[in-house]
């Protein structure tokens, strides 16, 4: 994680688990005593957003930025002005949770002047169990669309192949193989293999990429 750029942009298909990865990434930075900021730029999905965990994350020392206009029966996502802190204040390690499709990634395009190649990482979170990202051609097409609208380059792949709490090690390894194939096709390196902590002792040694065990912050105990 310390080799990653100060600004980390997390994107991927809806249902890939990018928000879960974003939260866990921010938590790990905070545990490393880094001054950490988590920015929720998801203006597409009204559910399972990182800003819903703001109180819990701030207790862990993470500054959470996420905008919305709230009324009695509506929650309209907006983009808060203090997002610019992430780009301008270099004392922060910034994690940006971006909307889960090319439409959501368009929000990132407005910050294009601040995203100079080489001073950020943009990670594409891949779930090989999603129909829209279950083969190389579909993944590459999706990555290309996100790069076009975000006006930023994907610098790393995150294998986060899962079935929520029913995830097995076979799911993780299935995603690993697909991620390697996508990496070979695109030249984008596989940076992380994400898995539930209880599966850690089942993961074979010697895999490419960093092993990244997570907790499920966004799934309540009663959720499958």
Essential attributes:
224 residues, alpha/beta, Rossmann fold, nine-stranded mixed sheet, 29% helix
| Strand elements, count | 9
* Spatial gap, N to C terminus: 29 Å
- In CATH, the topology is named Rossmann fold
Order of strands, widest sheet: 4-3-2-5-1-6-7-8-9
Q: What percentage of amino acids are in beta strands? A: 25-35%
Measured as a percent range, the helix fraction is 25-40%
Description of the structure:
By secondary structure, the chain is of the alpha/beta class. It has a single domain, classed as P-loop containing nucleotide triphosphate hydrolases (Rossmann fold), CATH 3.40.50. It has 6 helices and 9 strands; from the N terminus they run E-H-E-H-E-E-H-E-H-E-H-E-H-E-E. It has a 9-stranded mixed beta sheet, sandwiched between helices. Helix 2 links the parallel strand 2 and strand 3. The relative contact order is 0.18. The C terminus is likely disordered.
Question: Which helices and strands, and how do they pair?
Answer:
Blueprint: E1 7-12, H1 18-31, E2 36-41, H2 54-59, E3 62-71, E4 74-78, H3 84-88, E5 93-98, H4 102-109, E6 120-126, H5 136-150, E7 156-159, H6 169-186, E8 190-196, E9 210-214
Parallel strand pairs: 1-5, 1-6, 2-3, 2-5, 6-7, 7-8, 8-9
Antiparallel strand pairs: 3-4
């Amino acid at each position: 994680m310390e080799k990653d750029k100060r600004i980390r942009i997390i994107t991927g298909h809806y249902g890939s688990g990018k928000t879960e990865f974003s939260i866990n990434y921010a938590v790990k930075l905070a545990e490393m005593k880094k001054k950490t900021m988590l920015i929720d730029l998801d203006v597409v999905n009204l559910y399972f957003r990182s800003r819903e965990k703001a109180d819990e994350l701030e207790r862990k020392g993470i500054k959470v930025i996420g905008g919305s206009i709230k009324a009695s029966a509506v929650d309209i996502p907006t983009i808060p002005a203090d997002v610019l802190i992430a780009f301008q204040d270099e004392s922060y390690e910034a994690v940006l949770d971006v909307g889960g499709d090319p439409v959501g990634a368009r929000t990132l395009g407005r910050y294009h002047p601040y995203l100079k190649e080489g001073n950020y990482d943009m990670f594409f979170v891949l779930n090989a169990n999603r129909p829209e990202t279950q083969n190389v051609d579909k993944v590459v097409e999706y990555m290309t669309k996100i790069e076009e609208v975000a006006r930023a380059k994907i610098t790393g792949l995150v294998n986060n192949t899962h079935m929520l709490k029913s995830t097995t090690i076979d799911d993780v390894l299935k995603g690993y193989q697909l991620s390697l194939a996508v990496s070979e096709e695109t030249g984008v390196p596989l940076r992380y293999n994400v898995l539930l902590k209880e599966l850690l002792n089942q993961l074979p040694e010697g895999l490419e990429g960093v092993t990244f065990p997570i907790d499920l912050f966004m799934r309540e105990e009663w959720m499958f």
